[in-house]
Specification:
Radius of gyration: 25 Å
Shape: globular
Number of strands: 0
Strand content: under 5%
Number of helices: 22
Largest sheet: none
Order of helices and strands: HHHHHHHHHHHHHHHHHHHHHH
Length: 533
């Protein structure tokens, strides 16, 4: 089994970002892909490290250094839950080369372990980047023994296991429930978005507001962390073990992580074939008759090529849950955050300190870029060309220009982004009571970022399309185009924040105009060239 597992792990690794194909056709391209991937990982890692250090030093400054391990383990656990939930379908289940993989001379357990290892590696990477800096800060505030250091290292590996197991089973359950319904893909997306929001929003709702002086903030944080510890015993056991050197408590955490994971692997392996059969089974969408078809054809109004292509793009987005979740979750978070902030403001739950003074001025200046962050990592276009896959011949042979084909892909992304930004910007501006200029910028700035990211993602994917995928997961999650687009979103938001800090509202306006102009230039250059194989 170990030999088969090793081969499957190698295949999973080389399949990432199309490296296997590039290594056998163009080694220079493979090197560029690896370099771009590492650059993106370093950039995202730097942001995670900065956030982790800031949160840890904040707890330490309020006299809550002993709570740093609890928060660190909690973050590692959330990394496991989010990574597994968003990636389970397409990596572990419902992958298109399922029949080929299962025909190989390897055990089902080896197949399951190789694919779970991919999920675990992602969770472990993000968890380690977030946890280790926080533990380093904890060590500066409190003395740590050798046993505590060992438990810190072990906690990094153990933290993702339990939430990853629960998330995988939850993802399977949602897909299984949805698969029995008429509009399975829509149900899957709705349930998945609800689960992701629960994972992200509930912890923040528990933490709540921290307005007031330092003593009040410290007391409130301590109370909230104690409440979370009561709700999450395994995380509390890990924290107790690290802080107090309690081997029994840490042993309970290890058992609570390893035993459910082992049982989950055994259950998934035992039911692997039946689960995949259920998830890949298609259901008829309705009845067909030549009489009905004739009536529909006669009554149907002719549509322009652009409208027809736009409808096709929208149909693909809705029918591919992993595509919709990955490319639109940022817009969902903007809407949820804006509605929550508006409700909190209407109910008088927002601290008065944030409505005026220096804090209010900072919120007014940088609120647009807070929204732009989520918009910048969301784009339907970064995988839209690659997702044509085997049906790409339709794109090449359609009697329309490349400008029309690519324009439909861009318009779909903007049709989702602009309304989300408009609603979110207006609600957040009202909730935080910002001035008219800041309110206008709260719409214009993230809208300009959406325009740039939409065109830039389309530009990169059209220039480097990947059509040899076995599952939609690959172009959506593993492609170079998506990685570069997300990295560009981080970069332009950082540059915009610096421009705003240096020149105020004028800097934000100039930067936004420059983004739209750059997007117009890129789209003109892209649409003037023929579509590439």
């Amino acid at each position: 089994m170990l030999h088969g597992l090793g081969l499957l792990l190698k295949i999973q690794l080389l399949g990432t970002f199309g490296l296997n194909k590039a290594l056998h056709t163009d080694r220079a391209k493979a090197k560029r892909s690896i370099a771009l991937f590492l650059l993106a990982v370093i950039a995202i890692g730097a942001l995670c490290v900065g956030y982790s250090l800031g949160a840890a030093f904040g707890l330490g400054s309020f006299g809550l250094a002993d709570d740093i391990p609890f928060v660190a383990v909690l973050v590692g656990s959330l990394a496991g839950a989010v990574a597994a939930f968003l990636k389970a379908n397409g990596v572990l289940f419902a992958f298109k080369d399922y029949d080929i993989v299962m025909s190989l001379p390897v055990t089902t357990m080896a197949v399951v372990l190789s694919r779970l290892a991919a999920l675990y590696a992602v969770a472990l990477l993000f968890g380690a980047v977030a946890m280790l800096p926080a533990f380093g800060v904890y060590a500066t505030y409190a003395g740590v023994s050798f046993s505590s250091v060992v438990m810190v290292v072990l906690s990094v590996f153990l933290a993702p296991l339990l939430p990853m197991t629960v998330a995988v089973l939850l993802a399977v359950g949602i897909s299984a429930v949805a698969a029995r319904m008429r509009h399975a893909n829509i149900v899957t997306v709705v349930l998945s978005i609800a689960a992701v929001l629960a994972i992200i929003v509930v912890p923040n709702a528990i933490v709540g507001s921290t307005g007031g002086d330092d003593a009040e903030i410290m007391a409130l944080l301590a109370q909230q962390l104690s409440a979370m510890a009561a709700l999450l015993p395994p995380v509390a056991w890990a924290s107790t073990g690290i802080v107090s050197g309690d081997m029994v408590a840490f042993g309970l955490f290890a058992a609570a992580s390893i035993i459910p994971a082992a049982l989950g692997i055994a259950l998934i392996s035992h039911r692997f074939a039946s689960i995949n059969t259920l998830l890949m089974a298609s259901r008829p969408k309705g009845s067909f008759s030549f009489d009905a078809a004739g009536k529909n054809e006669a009554s149907a109004k002719p549509r322009s090529p652009l409208v027809a292509l736009l409808a096709k793009e929208a149909s693909r987005l809705v029918s591919t849950p992993i595509y919709l979740m990955n490319s639109c979750i940022g817009y969902v978070l903007v809407l949820v955050a804006s509605i929550a902030a508006a409700a909190a403001s209407a109910l008088g739950m927002l601290p008065p300190e944030i409505m005026g003074g220096k804090v209010g001025a900072l919120i007014a200046a940088f609120l647009p870029w807070m929204m732009a962050f989520f918009v910048g990592i969301s784009s339907t276009t970064a995988a839209s060309v690659s997702l044509e896959g085997k049906s790409r011949w339709l794109m090449y042979t359609a009697p329309v220009s490349a400008r029309t084909v690519l324009g439909a892909k861009a318009l779909l992304s903007l049709a989702i982004a602009i309304p989300s930004v408009l609603v979110g910007g207006v609600l957040l501006s009202i909730a935080f009571g910002v001035g008219l200029l800041s309110g206008v910028l709260a719409v214009i700035v993230p809208a300009s970022v959406a325009v740039f990211v939409t065109v830039f993602g389309l530009f990169v994917d059209a220039r480097r399309p990947r059509f040899d995928w076995k599952s939609e997961y690959e172009p959506v999650k593993r492609s170079v185009a998506v990685t570069i687009t997300v990295f560009s979103g981080f970069a332009i938001v950082l540059a915009g924040v610096l421009a705003t800090a240096a020149a105020g509202a004028i800097g934000a306006i100039i930067f936004s105009v420059a983004l739209v102009a750059a997007a117009w230039f890129l789209f003109g250059k892209l649409s003037a060239a023929p579509l590439q194989e």
